[in-house]
């Protein structure tokens, strides 16, 4: 799958976002090592701490289906800036792959690419796991 195809899936996923408070729709498309794709969108809640980011929705869907090996994730936000993952999402991604590629798009269609270890160089690790 090309970068553009994965980014298009993230953009499509953003159309399902529930964002009545921020009005900022985000979509994510997660590619697993075996080629499977899981998508997610942000889901807001009036109790803001219960809001879930698109990236974590995609990752949790994948894990709930038995997948834990990810190669890359595309994130699309309809704003003018590149849509980078928040700290909580970076930490969740880091639980599975520090070398994951992270494609960050903006509304105009442009995107940048990072390795997760660039965005989260020192992830929290519990004990010796």
Outline: globular
> What is the CATH homologous superfamily assignment?
Cytidine Deaminase, domain 2
Helix content: 25-40%
CATH architecture assignment: 3-Layer(aba) Sandwich
Q: Strand content of the residues, in percent?
A: 15-25%
> Mean of residue pLDDT?
96
Order of H and E elements:
HEEHEHEEH
- Please give the order of strands in the largest beta sheet: 2-1-3-4-5
User: What is the subunit arrangement here?
Assistant: single chain
Any overview of this molecule?
- This protein has 129 residues and is an alpha+beta fold.
- It has one domain (3-119): Cytidine Deaminase, domain 2 (3-Layer(aba) Sandwich).
- 27% of the residues lie in helices and 23% in strands.
- Strands 2-1-3-4-5 form a 5-stranded mixed sheet.
- The protein is globular and about 40 Å long.
- The N and C termini lie far apart (32 Å).
Notable traits:
alpha+beta; five-stranded mixed sheet; globular
Short description, anyone?
It contains four helices and five strands; from the N terminus they run H-E-E-H-E-H-E-E-H. With 129 residues, the chain is of the alpha+beta class.
